[in-house]
Write a structure and sequence with these properties.
Largest sheet: none
Structural class: mainly alpha
Helix content: 55-70%
Radius of gyration: 19 Å
Amino acid sequence: MWNMNRLVTTEKRRRLLEEWTREGGLSGNALKRIACFFMFFDHLSQGVALDSIGFHCANLFDLSAQPTAGVLAGIAVLFGRIAFPIFCFFLVQGMLLTRDYKKQILRLVLFALISEIPFDLGLSGQMIYADHQNVMFTLALGAAVVACAETIEGKMERKAPRYLAMFAVALSAGAFAEVLNFDYGMSGIVAIFLFYLAAMSRRESLIMDAIAFIFEAPLYGTVYLSIPLINAYNGKRGRGNRYGFYLFYPGHLLLLYLLSIYI
């Protein structure tokens, strides 16, 4: 069976669920909550909320030279590296399992637009900060890359031209993300694309996590703590609102800005 609103056939969807379903482990919503937890403290330490009390790390590679508040902020940034790989992984899973991938992309674009002013306020203290756009734009563009790649896979039988076309789409999107200063830029789009290539295999997805985020490995390798967390995924959605992350993202950024006003 083929639903035109879906990217994948029913058979491929079945194989994807079969690969990731396991007993025990953590549900998708549980892992997203973990990612949101670390993202919150990462943004708390990088934004303007607690600047007045020195909760900001000037040099992640020399924590010993920082005051106590700076050390804590640095630790928050380092552990915040866990969040983005988890969001990239679930973006790909969601795109391949969704009943309507077009709505998924449009939803990401909508919340990217909604989140931009809270993002600018929370991290820079300015209502408009053109030098850096929020990560929802990166995820929306990454979702479009997944949609294009899956469409190419369905239409091109020969492997070499197929993968060449996919990589061309991913790199073009990455260049676009760089030009518009999307969060993570080219690196973020490539990471999403690599997760897509490995989506049908748990083992390969974990390997791709290690490869895709090698650019953050110098930060004491904390980004690789995402690997055992993704490995714990049990293929189930779990309890929670499916729109929780969409609402949490602009909400926590707005909260951080309000904290900067009152602290």
